[in-house]
Structure formats: structure tokens, C-alpha cells
Amino acid sequence: MNFPSELKYTKDHEWIRIEGNEAIVGITEFAQGELGDIVYIDINSVGSEVAEGDVFGTVEAVKTVSDLFMPITGTVLEVNEKLDASPELVNTDPYGDGWMVKIGIKDPAQLETLLSADAYKSQVGA
After folding, report:
1. Domain total in the chain
2. Which residues form the Lipoyl-binding domain (predicted)?
3. Which of 99, 76, 78 shows the shortest CA–CA distance to 87?
4. Can you tell me the mean pLDDT for 36-41?
5. Residues of 45-81 as b/e, b for ≥16 C-beta within 10 angstroms?
6. What residue numbers bound the domain in which 32 lies?
7. Which neighbouring-strand residues pair with 25?
8. Is it the case that residue 1 has pLDDT exceeding 90?
């Protein structure tokens, strides 16, 4: 299982990649494996500020629907449009083409509360 060291992680299995004042958010390889085959992504929060820990969308797999939680407070700037036609990208490339949203970071200090790759790896028992 892959745990890219340049990313930060949440206990709810989201990852975040910092790019200046913006960040990319997705779900981890562990999370997509637990969900199984992903068939639909529902994110309607573009333009909205979403607080840390709040739901910014849902991911639907064959057997379940799971909420997506915002790792830090930010404004949703963009949703990955590729997921509309190909939600399975979350399964095949969760840290690349399967990203979910791009956000504008409101409070960079919140990044300090996120898990490192090693801490997340320990949490999931890998």
C-alpha cells in the first residue's frame, strides 16, 4: 500500500497536498480499498467555504455511500471533472488523477494537526 510522504492525512482517510496557498484533497489508497469499486462522486460545494471536519461531498461505491470530510478549512475552488465520467480513477490512481477537490487554504496553521504518512500508516495498521 502506498503512503506518499509529501502528503498529510486525516483520521477519516483523506489526504491533502499543499501547493502554495491552495491544496488538493482526495481519499487514501486505504480508503478506496475499503470502499471497493467506486461508481459515483457527488461534490456540490464549489465556491463554498467548508470548515475543517465538515462534509464536502460523498463517494458512492457498489455497496455503500461514504461522506468526504474536509481536512482543513478552505474554499472549494475546483472539482476534478474527470471523476464525472470516470469515478474509478479514485480506485486506480487515488493520489494522482483520482483527486477530488482543489481548495483555497484559509488557516495554514490547521495543517499542523494533520497526520504524517508514518502516523497515518500506523493508524491503519499497515
Report:
1. 1
2. 22-104
3. 99
4. 96
5. beeeebebeeebbebebeeeebebbbbbbbbbeebbe
6. 8-104
7. 16, 101
8. no
